[in-house]
Design a protein that fits this description.
The complex is a heterodimer.
Chain A lengths: L3 E3 L2 E5 L4 E7 L6 E7 L5 E8 L4 E4 L2 E6 L4 E6 L8 E8 L7 E3 L3 E6 L1
Parallel strand pairs in A: 2-11
Antiparallel strand pairs in A: 1-3, 3-8, 4-5, 4-9, 6-7, 7-8, 9-10, 9-11
Chain B lengths: L3 E4 L2 E4 L4 E8 L5 E7 L6 E7 L2 E5 L6 E7 L2 E7 L7 E8 L8 E2 L3 E5 L1
Parallel strand pairs in B: 2-11
Antiparallel strand pairs in B: 1-3, 3-8, 4-5, 4-9, 5-6, 7-8, 9-10, 9-11
The chains are: A mainly beta, B mainly beta.
Chain lengths: ~110, ~110
């Protein structure tokens, strides 16, 4: 079956880079997603990567995809206190699916 | 515009009450979703509407009743809920085909007493 795994916590100092990692099992998802959830809020689509790409850069965000190892990472450069949130990795559960499978979420804490 | 709106923001209800959650999007999306999220957990899919037809019901108890009056609106009718149903209820929408990107609303925080 499909499964998405993430480490639960990450703590970084303001100004440093953050790297959040995710592993997945299903190779049929067309895109892989990163969502951000601030306390008490909904999920904000942060970025996504097409499954035939290796890297995508969007301002301070860099997504790396290693299809061979089924490993996805999100790098946040110059991490700010406003980046403190839970980050969910997600993929669809197979071809033709409407069901997103989420990882358990990584709580990023930024120390001023 | 990638906005999904949800009302109310917060809701407190007793176990004998009937209430409804509302979700709206004006992006022309044809798939809409309800998720339930408990504290410190990822969202769990409840229902999917595709082109105003219920296409997925993830074995949700009948005390939750979804409704899709038109392509922009999605309701979730609540009746005889239990305290364990207290959670953040999230609505999302996508263009309409499978594996389309989902955009989420801010959620309704529900407390059942």
């Amino acid at each position: 079956g499909e499964d998405v795994e993430q480490s639960l916590f990450l703590s970084v100092r303001e100004g440093d880079s953050s790297v959040i990692n995710c592993t997945y099992t299903d190779s049929s998802s067309t895109y892989l997603y990163w969502y951000k959830q601030e306390p008490g809020a909904g999920l904000q689509l942060l970025t996504y990567i097409f499954s035939n790409m290796d890297m995508k850069q969007d301002q301070r965000l860099t997504v790396l995809l290693n299809k061979k190892d089924k490993h996805l990472s999100l790098r946040i450069a110059d991490t700010q206190t406003g980046d403190s949130a839970i980050y969910f990795c997600a993929q669809y559960s197979g071809a033709g699916s409407y069901q997103l499978t989420f990882g358990k979420g990584t709580k990023l804490s930024v120390i001023p | 515009d990638t906005e999904v709106t949800q009302t109310p923001k917060h809701l407190v209800m007793g176990m004998t009450n009937k209430k409804s959650l509302k979700c709206e999007q004006h992006m022309g999306h044809r798939a809409m979703y309800w998720y339930k999220q408990k504290a410190k957990k990822p969202p769990e899919l409840m229902f999917v509407y595709s082109y105003e037809k219920l296409s997925i019901n993830e074995s949700v108890p009948s005390r939750f009743s979804p409704e899709c009056p038109n392509s922009s609106l999605l309701n979730l009718h609540l009746h005889a809920l239990q305290p364990e149903d207290s959670a953040l209820y999230l609505c999302a929408s996508s263009q309409g085909s499978s594996q389309d990107t989902q955009y989420f609303g801010p959620g309704t925080r529900l407390l059942v007493l």
